[in-house]
Amino acid sequence: MMKKLKQVFFATLIAISSTAGAQEQNMQETGRAFLRSGDFENAILVFNRALASDKENRELKKDLVLAHYYKRDYSKALEIAKSLIDDDDADVMSFQLAGNVYRALEDLKEATRMYRRAIKKFPASGPLYNEYGELLASAKNGEAIEQWEKGIQADPSFAGNYYNAAVHYANAGNKVWPLIYGEIFVNMESLTERATAMKKLLLQQYKERLFAEGNEPKNESEFAKAFLQTVQKQGSVANTGITVETLTAIRTRFLLDWYASNATKFPFKLFDYQQQLAREGMFEAYNQWLFGTVENLPAYENWSRTHNDAHAAFTSFQRSRIFRVPQGQYYR
Fold first, then answer.
1. Which fold has domain 24-319?
2. Which regions are annotated as TPR repeats (predicted)?
């Protein structure tokens, strides 16, 4: 009889615990719905009530930081964010949230200290390098690019560092890295406004910089020098102007020369991907997608209609894969 009573007791405890956990989860989802709708006061109310019965729930605390942040109550957001990052179990997102609050408060000194601490704890986090670089860039600190480069090297499959680095190098007049980093970024993040902006930057770089006289790279890596020498061999093709068609020809010939002389020394995912597309008859469609959509959208749409099979094959292929750069292919 006693054994049976114990079994009933423990079963009841489990049921109560499960019910409580489900209730907190439901409250969290309710709070997030308020957050998405812009009702920050109700979101804060619900998150606080959920935390009252589960004071150590880190996910609820993160949601509460966001709610106060969006409400622009940065002091309260910072108070909760500090409790998150001071915990031994602090994760990357906790530091990102704290960073957003410090940046909103324009507290450069504390934000810098926090990001350095975060990167020391998570030295392979691309997002942390990216956001620290953005903080430095907002303060006109030239060391921003160093953080984005470290992010690319440590976490090559995170897109944000490629975007910021490409823009930085384009503004600096560099001929190589805007093209390399920009195209990698577009393949990682292809459906956003930033991707469209990067496509425009790539086309501009090919038109205005790549084949222009002077401004040759100094103190560049062997990879960058090899890339520039190989692609500039096709300069005569640019004599008729830079269009999607001439870019396709230039880039096709570049691949032939690169794989004949440099691919073994410098294995590189972006060029491997381009070569795969060329080998499978999709490189023209890829270049149309990369440049045609921003050069002349009606012309691109007409090309897609008149080359429906090629367009459909590339689109299907692109949607079926995720572009990632492997570790070890860092040549900056």
1. 1.25.40
2. 24-57, 92-125
